[in-house]
Amino acid sequence: MFVRTERLTLRRFAPADAERFAAYRSDPVVANYQSWTAPLPLAEAQQTVERFAQDDPEAPGWFQYAVDLDGALIGDLGLKLHENLMQAELGFTLAAEYQGHGYASEAVRGLLEYLFVERELHRVSAECDARNTASARLLERVGFTREGLRLSNTWFKGEWTDDLIFGFLRDDYLNRSRPTPAPSA
User: Domain N-acetyltransferase: where (predicted)?
Assistant: First the structure.
């Protein structure tokens, strides 16, 4: 199971990914808006990666795609498939040294192409902390629509935070990715 983009491969996690996974998830900057607290001990990373390797991308629930650049793990995309198998929620994490080079956008675009074209999902949603402007900009850049703001919605790392809500419909994706027809003579 692979999704390929120009520079990246989205693949299943493998046990060899544990050390690199622990390294980028232990970075406090990377963990800032994420559900975990840095550092991530290697033993815990090994268990997590083993679980990720066993998960089924076709089954309802979370599946983590490893983001691979030339054989190196640089991040991961989380996809929570709804019970109806027609909609999903997306999350993403990228190692700090690979941020700002278009890799996260490329990975998300590649996964959206797969989800909307191959798997024919109806909708993909995402949410982020309103202070996480880089993630919000990425979601908008790849085509998500900002659908709302939930004020003081989430108790997160000792404080109430605002959540931005985003959505992307398959019809909108297919309409934007089709080439514009040439004018008729």
Answer: 8-171
- The per-residue DSSP string of 155-166 comes to EETTEEEEEEEE
Residue-level pLDDT at 163: 98
Helix (H) or strand (E) holding 139: helix 133-141
Whether 25 and 93 have beta carbons less than 8 Å apart is answered as yes
Q: Give me 15's structure tokens.
A: 């046990």
Provide, for the chain, the percentages of residues in helix, strand and coil under a 3-state DSSP scheme, each rounded to the nearest 5.
35, 35, 30
Domain that holds residue 9: 2-177
Task: Extract the tokens encoding 140.
Answer: 């908008």
- Give the CATH number of the domain where residue 71 resides: 3.40.630.30
CA distance linking residue 125 with residue 129, whole number of Å: 14
